[in-house]
Amino acid sequence: MATMTRYPPDQDSLNLTQLRGALTGTRFAAHLQHFASVGSTNTLLLEAAVNGAAEGSVYVADEQTAGRGRSDHAWHSAAGEGLYLSALAKPSLRLRDALLLSLATGLAAWQAVNEVAGLDVDLRWPNDLLLDGKKLGGILVETAVEPGDDPQLRYAVIGIGINVHQRAFPPELAALATSLDLENDSLTTYRTPLAIALLRALDMELTSMELTSMELTHLESGPAHAGSLLGRFAEHSSWVSGKRVHVPEQQGYTGTTAGLDSRGFLLVDADDGTRRTVLSGGVRELL
Fold it and tell me: Taking the model in full, what pTM does it have?
């Protein structure tokens, strides 16, 4: 775990000089921009991507006034209390394999939180970070594609939000959300070291995502082995196997999770005796 100087969270400014220095050698060192307040880092970076922004561009904000999660749900982004960033990637990846980006980003977030805060995040498929069953953070990947019979990704904007210093949430979120400060009173986590750990881990995951045809064939050849992206995601997720869940799609059904398919989609053994593939998020635990 990293050792950090203690000072009040309200003095937790993002240090771009430190960020750039620590990110030397990654794709993110040269195109880092900080904003005091934006509507949404993802929306802003998507606009920049359309206009030719470089791979590795990162937008990080102290506050989002219109933060977005999956299905355009609002993301609570109070000023100075969380890490809100978006990164532009241009991986060599087919559109039908794009879900692997969300899973890889989840693994990067798990690594960063574990390294900096010493906490073991539970990855709820496909894009939520949980601690003690409450939402710590989320991932939103938005893509553009090159047209064709087997479309390739043109680029992906990877948005990540992690609650850091929140001590209270709006009433509608109080029972559902948590933060690093709430979960670990013995150690204050600071946003600059967290951002460094996150972007370094994400760079490593994206490097491994430069998938060749051979690697894709390997993924398709059978269940994920322990060293693969899918195997590592399953290792850090209580949701992948043996979880009783409700799935809202296909008119809604209940069942037990049964692993991931070769593309990273969640399999569920439904209570009607069929095995189904979940194609979107929103899976919730049956209590």
Answer: 0.89
